Amino acid sequence: MADVLLVHDDIKLYTTSDKFFLEPHINPTEVLVIDRITGEASVKDIKYVKIPIPVHAYKPVCGFLGTIRLISGLYLVVAKYRILVGKINGHDIYQLAGTDIIPYARSTTHLTSKQIEDNNTYERLLRAALETPGIYFSYGYDLTHTMQRLHSVAADFQKMSLASRADSRFLWNGHLLKEFSQQQFQRFALPLIQGFVAVNRVTVNGHQLTWSLVSRRCVERAGTRFFMRGVDAQGNVANFVETEQIIERGGEKSSFVQTRGSIPLFWCQHPDLRYKPPMTLSPEDHVAAYTRHMRDQTQRYGGQVLVNLIDQHGKEESLERGYRAAVAAAALPGVRYEPFDFHAECRGMRYDRLNVLMDRIAHEQTEFGYFLSRGGTVLLRQGGVFRTNCVDCLDRTNVVQSMLARRQLAAALRLLAVTTGDDQHPQFDRLFNAVWADHADMISLQYSGTGALKTDFTRTGKRTHLGALRDGVNSLTRYYKNNFSDGSRQDSIDLLLGKYVVVDGEGNTVPCPLRRDRDWKYVTFPSVLMVAVSMFCASAVLPSRYSSEVLLYLMFWGAAVGATLSFIFRHGKEFVEWPRLDGAGLALVGPRGPPPSL
């Protein structure tokens, strides 16, 4: 791959009353000048720019991430802190560790008190989105593309800036950078991905290798576990993640790609206080949406094996039947459906049964192969991918993806003459397990709000009772977050990605969606429940002896607790925290932006 145009890394941010100046720290030749009054931005030769404040009066930042409009006006978004992850293809990869959002407006006197309150809420939502763990960037390596894609493009593509050539599916600050797509900004616009990146230097049989794992979360239908499910009319699916395993040794590079994504049907699972809300298939054209999704996938990746790990009986049965029917009705060439009832097959912690699935898809893994280049010359190309899913595309999915990755890793190391196939490498095995478990936790945290389940198997190769206990704690945490905090998290994602755009006059001449009155039941019944529980406990604990009167009190307050709980769960959806922006929590099955460009 040819060298790309590097993005400026360390930057001096000078702030005056009417302008922002972003000057590269090392050997500056140009300055990004932003007018805080008009919002106009331009890159100027440093010889013609005079910054009217002392040269030492700057704020150090490590990247320009773009701008966004909130109620008070435009905001500048910059990266403040970073953590070095490692090198891929000779370029440093960083994890975003801190950002700053700076208003263009010097005061909020032009806003009403309600607008100021709403603007502060938008600021909190934006900060929450930018503080989500697992945001990465590089000043010289295109993290939005796989190695195979980067070796399959024209020479002109390599000359483009990182932001302008980025795969829009995985560009998480694309909305922030939309006004900075011109060539003059090419060395300032720093693209971000969300997902997971791990880079490790390892030695196997005396061979020095770099083993990396890169996952990219898609911005289309991005969101939280219960508020974003299924497919939209354009064929975009929720929780779509492209995962690439990379091996580098000198000039030799190998890459293996897998994908995951929600079942490509129109379905939803709105939270309603039940531990597992019902899954609902909507009466829409499932086959058409499935076909759009799969045609896009086959065009991008080649052949597809659809590994479906959901239950084939019980609550998940309707989804499995619908998926199977859509695959049969579309009958697309190069697409094969591979159902595997994970829970039934592995009941009783029999995770060795996963070898049954591995054996069934082994011939296709050999057929699809993987990418391999030596000295810039492509020797092998990957001809297809495994698209794995469960209901959430998290826990079961990660177990199977790690097994596929392990098999490919062994094959690539044999081809590179690093191993013979019979030798054991326990230290590398432990690293592999730990990284894939960390990967599972990160992807799960971004979608469900907690770490993944079943990571004890990924880390140790076996299911344990302690792991099952941890899964229980994570499940309870998920239950709370999915019902009582994911509405705001969905709003923060929609705001960052531009799925909702703040309009001029919002909160004054235009209604602000953040202001949503709760039904009277939202406050009344939880309050009654708290009083009833308190009185029941007091009646049970305080009396020195129990009389018939005390027992009547216990029965009364116990009945009050039961009746209140019954009412709350019967009207569960009214007590859930729903998203407020763009109606995301109310109409989840439908268009969510344009289809990704092919």
Automatic annotation (TrEMBL):
Asked if the keyword Membrane belongs to this entry, the reply reads yes
Question: Keywords in UniProt for this one?
Answer: Membrane, Transmembrane, Transmembrane helix
Q: Name one Pfam family in it.
A: Syja_N
Highest rank taxon of the organism = Eukaryota
State the top-level EC class.
hydrolase
Residue ranges of every copy of the SAC domain listed in the record: 126-449
The catalytic activity, as recorded, is: a 1,2-diacyl-sn-glycero-3-phospho-(1D-myo-inositol-3-phosphate) + H2O = a 1,2-diacyl-sn-glycero-3-phospho-(1D-myo-inositol) + phosphate; a 1,2-diacyl-sn-glycero-3-phospho-(1D-myo-inositol 4-phosphate) + H2O = a 1,2-diacyl-sn-glycero-3-phospho-(1D-myo-inositol) + phosphate
User: Looking at the keywords, is Zinc present?
Assistant: no
Which EC numbers does the record give? 3.1.3.64
Enumerate the InterPro entries for this protein. SAC_dom (IPR002013)
Q: Could you list the residue ranges that cross the membrane?
A: 523-544, 550-569
Indicate what this protein is called per its UniProt record. Phosphatidylinositol-3-phosphatase SAC1
